[in-house]
Each structure stands twice: as structure tokens, then as C-alpha cells.
């Protein structure tokens, strides 16, 4: 595979795509705490064997909370800007379902840049279940898609997934630490070829490759 596009260090600015941008200073610490607690709440709801009186009271409380939080809603598509040590900025979709900082549905998957791409660590609770006791294959694909896209973005090439291939080598366990790694393997015009794996205890559970098509800044 050849590489015919030199990676750039500057990511496109989401503002140039008309997207709202927030900084970490705009996000109260209490939002992070709420997100983590609601994440745990979803797991509790999925697995509770509480009685009907307890369930009725819980649903009334949750309904009231939902109405209170909906009074002031953020625009969809908001991007979080994080300063990098080299003076540039990283961007992530605030409510991204796999890794979004404000999304309680996200596991959450914590990403970092490596010398050749990105690495992420995640532990999936029982709400990501497909087969009994195992991670859902669609979610495995979603996590691979995320790190594949992030590897492309980390190399300065933000794009959309045009094609995703997944091979499930071993069952992906729940409630166990997983490591995901991804890197760019080549480029051809706007196409960015990327490759990723999920490992548990060093053993590959799934691997994926994707073709990302690089987005050009409007104008
Ligand atoms: C927005 C601002 C952001 C600013 C900064 C942000 C930082 C972000 C940070 C972190 C990254 C986040 C990470 C996200 C991770 C998750 C990723 C996803 O879930 S993406 C959602 C699912 N994917 C879609 O919804 C795409 C739907 N498809 C499309 O929109 C189009 O088909 C698109 C854009 C992919 C291509 O359309 P065309 O019209 O632009 O381009 P054409 O001319 O068709 O193709 C260009 C080249 O790609 C090949 N191509 C197209 N489709 C292909 C395919 N399915 N397989 C292989 N090659 C394909 C073509 O053959 C062509 O190649 P040739 O240059 O001629 O050789």
C-alpha cells in the first residue's frame, strides 16, 4: 500500500463546517459526574430485580429529572476542542456514542495518540451485551470504526467511513479491560486506509480495516 498524501498536523477547524465548538472550560465538572452516574443508572435499570413500587418511584424520579435537564439543550453536532501540548487543538464530537464526553451511552472509551496511531482502553458493562455474557458484535464494529476514524484524524486526515470490514476472532468479554489500537496503513487520493484491533489480555478478539474518505474543508 502506498502513501501519497503527507499527513498534516493541523486538523480542520469544525467552525469551518458550521459546527458549534465548546471548550473543556464550558463543561462543568458536575456534567462529568452526572454522565458517569447516568451510565451506571442505565446498567442498574437493565439488571434490576427491584419490585414494582420501587420501579414506579424510580421512573417518576427519572421522568422529572429528564424534564429538568431538557429545559436547556445543547445543539446537536457540538464539537469539544481540546488544546494539544504543541499549541494545536484536537476535536471530538461531544455526544459521540462511543467516546463522547457528555454521552452516558458511551462506555466510555478513552483515546490517546501513539507514535503510529491511536490506542484506546475501555471496559464494557452488561449493557453492551449481545450473546449472553459477551459484547454485541455491532458494538465491537462501532468501537473499531471509532478508533479507525480517530487514527485517520490523528494523522491529520478527518474523514467519513466509506467501507468497514470486521473479523471476529474470539468473543469480546464484558466487564473486562479491552485495548484497541489503530493506524493509517496508506492513502490514495482522498482515500485513507486504516487498520485496527481489539485485544483482551493481549489476545486479539476482533480486527477491522476501513476506507475513510477525507473531508475537504468547504470553500
Ligand atoms: C466535520 C468536521 C470535523 C472537523 C474536525 C473533526 C475531528 C474529528 C476527530 C475524530 C474523528 C472522529 C472519528 C469518527 C469515527 C466514526 C466514523 C463514522 O462513523 S462515519 C459515519 C458512517 N459513514 C458515513 O455516513 C459515510 C456515508 N458515505 C458518504 O457520505 C460518501 O459515500 C463518502 C463521503 C464516503 C464518499 O463520497 P464522495 O462523493 O465524497 O466521494 P466519492 O467520489 O464517492 O469517493 C471518493 C473515493 O473513495 C472511494 N470510495 C467511495 N466509497 C467507497 C467504498 N464503499 N469502498 C471503497 N472505496 C470507496 C471512491 O471510489 C473514490 O476513490 P478514487 O479516488 O476514485 O479512487
Summarize the structure.
By secondary structure, the protein is of the alpha+beta class. 25% of the residues lie in helices and 31% in strands. The relative contact order is 0.16.
Structure, described:
- The chain has 219 residues and is α+β, with helices and mostly antiparallel strands.
- The chain folds into 2 domains: 13-106, no CATH class; 108-214, Thiol Ester Dehydrase, Chain A (Roll).
- The protein has helices at residues 29-47, 52-69, 137-154; strands at residues 21-23, 79-83, 89-93, 110-113, 117-123, 159-168, 177-188, 191-200, 203-214.
- It is globular and about 60 Å long.
- The chain starts with 20 loop residues before the first strand and ends in a 5-residue tail after the last strand.
- Residues 1-8 have low confidence and may be disordered.
Radius of gyration: 19 Å
Shape: globular
Order of helices and strands: EHHEEEEHEEEE
Mean pLDDT: 93
- Class by helix and strand content? alpha+beta
Strand content: 25-35%
Domain Thioesterase: 133-204
GO cellular component, one term: membrane
Subcellular location: Cell projection, Ruffle membrane; Cytoplasm; Membrane
Protein name: Acyl-coenzyme A thioesterase THEM4
How is the topology of this model organized?
Elements: E1 21-23, H1 29-47, H2 52-69, E2 79-83, E3 89-93, E4 110-113, E5 117-123, H3 137-154, E6 159-168, E7 177-188, E8 191-200, E9 203-214
Parallel strand pairs: 1-2
Antiparallel strand pairs: 2-3, 4-5, 5-7, 6-9, 7-8, 8-9
The protein binds ligand 3VV.
Ligand 3VV binds next to β3, α3, β6 and β9.
Amino acid at each position: 500500500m502506498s502513501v501519497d498524501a503527507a499527513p498534516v498536523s493541523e486538523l480542520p477547524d469544525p467552525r469551518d463546517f458550521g459546527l458549534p465548538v465548546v471548550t473543556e472550560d464550558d463543561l462543568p465538572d458536575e456534567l462529568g459526574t452526572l454522565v458517569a452516574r447516568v451510565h451506571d443508572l442505565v446498567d442498574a435499570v437493565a439488571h434490576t430485580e427491584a419490585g414494582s413500587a420501587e420501579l414506579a418511584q424510580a421512573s417518576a424520579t427519572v421522568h422529572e429529572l429528564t424534564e429538568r435537564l431538557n429545559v436547556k439543550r445543547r445543539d446537536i453536532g457540538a464539537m469539544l476542542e481540546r488544546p494539544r501540548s504543541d499549541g494545536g487543538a484536537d476535536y471530538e464530537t461531544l455526544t459521540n456514542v462511543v467516546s463522547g464526553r457528555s454521552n452516558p451511552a458511551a462506555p466510555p472509551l478513552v483515546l490517546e495518540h501513539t507514535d503510529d496511531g491511536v490506542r484506546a482502553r475501555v471496559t464494557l458493562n452488561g449493557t453492551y451485551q449481545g450473546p449472553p455474557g459477551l459484547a454485541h458484535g455491532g458494538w465491537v464494529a462501532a468501537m473499531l470504526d471509532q478508533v479507525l476514524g480517530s487514527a485517520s484524524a490523528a494523522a491529520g486526515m478527518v474523514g467519513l467511513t466509506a467501507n468497514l470490514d470486521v473479523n471476529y476472532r474470539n468473543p469480546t468479554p464484558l466487564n473486562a479491560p479491552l485495548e484497541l489500537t489503530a493506524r493509517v496503513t496508506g492513502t490514495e487520493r482522498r482515500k485513507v486506509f486504516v487498520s485496527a484491533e481489539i485485544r483482551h489480555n493481549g489476545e486479539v478478539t476482533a480486527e477491522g480495516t476501513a476506507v475513510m474518505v477525507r473531508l475537504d474543508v468547504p470553500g
